[in-house]
Specification:
Layout (H helix, E strand, L loop, with lengths): L6 E5 L4 H10 L18 E6 L7 H17 L4 E3 L6 E4 L2
Length: about 90
Amino acid sequence: MDTWLTLTVSCGFRNEADQEAAFAAGTSKEHWPNGKHNRRPSDAADVEPYPERWADPVKLAVLHAYIVGLARSRGMSLHGISWDAPHIERLP
């Protein structure tokens, strides 16, 4: 039997209030408008399993390595950020 993993984008674009709240909470290192979440279309997204969110950074790293590899096989440049576990961003 195949097992399917459903993913959710828990955060894509952040407006100024959301970005400043993320900075204050320590989940972003950038003030508005310098974060990659602050562009349209967003250059960053927080991707995690749904409905269960994983707190395990190793599991998230494996998931993100898979997503990054899949994107690269299609000509896109992405990478995961280790300090912000669900975070994936587009490379320039």
